[in-house]
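Support case: zinc ion complex. Customer-provided input:
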Amino acid sequence: MATMKALVKSEKARGLSMQKVDIPVITDEHEVLIKVKYASICGTDLHIYQWNEWSQNRIKTPQIAGHEFSGEVIGVGKAVKSVQIGDFVSAETHIPCGYCRLCRTGNMHICKNMKILGVDTNGIFAEYAKVPEVVLWKNAPELSQHFASVQEPLGNAVFTVTTGGVAGKSTLITGAGPIGLMAIQVAKALGAGPIIVSEVKDFRIDMALKNGADYVFNPTKEDVHQKIMRLTNGEGVEAALEMSGNEKALGLCIDALLPSGHISALGVFDKPFPIDINKVIFKNITLYGITGRKMFETWYIASSLLLNKRVDLNKIVTHLLPFEEWEKGFLLMEQGNCGKIVLKIAE
Ligand code: NAD
Ligand code: ZN
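Agent response - structure generated as follows:
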């Protein structure tokens, strides 16, 4: 059987290993075989690498990691209709069943039977991968192949920014990791202003400014709440996007929000913690949880923002590494002195 290089979670411990494994074979008529060209590293992949508590409870070994990619269709199951051999594709990570109540009511992204690519199934840090047709996204041929792999997290940013609406609104973004940085550009493209960012790491503070934030504050060094009040005539921001997964940052969003404002919360927290729910109630705040991407509305918006050059991923992708240097990418992400990291898997 033909083999390929793949990044496998094989041990129940920190790390991943590059191994020779069998090239996947289509076994279901709805499956598509992809030659992976580019793959980007997500925080979830880092968690699997680090073998944190979440991954210990969720990941079955051995399994290939990775879910953000672009590549070429090289094989299709006999029922596949929407793509053909040679198509340039990426994919949504949330694999829906298509039949449950949530799938049938426009909520496929939170399907009751959802499987996550590279988390519940073999992923795409490999020369070849097979994915079900239902999640495939056909890319425009003019889209750059390495930026195409980053559309999935861009979709997280789009979903978070568009949910409450930001046009003409003062907007707070807490956390300027890769997704927060994308949210700055998306919010700006959609007419938000001023865009106020809260971030703790110097490298990312600098990146937030380069990505178009009007003000960036460091909550470990300054009173961000007070700064926001000064910038908004003592009223507070009209929209807040929580993109750090830090409990104090969510507290800032609640405190610094204009009563009646909207918080879209994307950041994932390590553990449950108390919030002052009466502030949410008496301020008439909407606190809206964001999971994944709205399928497939956010894919259309993300791809339009890229094709019409409203979002420039050159300012977000800081490293393009050969597949063999995958570990360097993971370690860079762990340090946080980077934006998005993309691996080149093949020509
Ligand atoms: P990231 O971890 O790279 O970015 C988080 C940023 O927040 C970092 O730059 C960090 O320095 C900053 N930060 C930490 N504490 C802070 C504080 N108190 N105030 C302000 N900033 C602070 O992550 P990312 O890849 O950009 O993703 C953003 C968040 O979204 C993460 O929590 C991630 O787990 C989550 N996420 C959620 C979904 C979902 O479907 N809900 C999907 C993808 C990612
Ligand atoms: Zn479903």
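The mean pLDDT is 97.

Case will auto-close in a few days if no follow-up is received.
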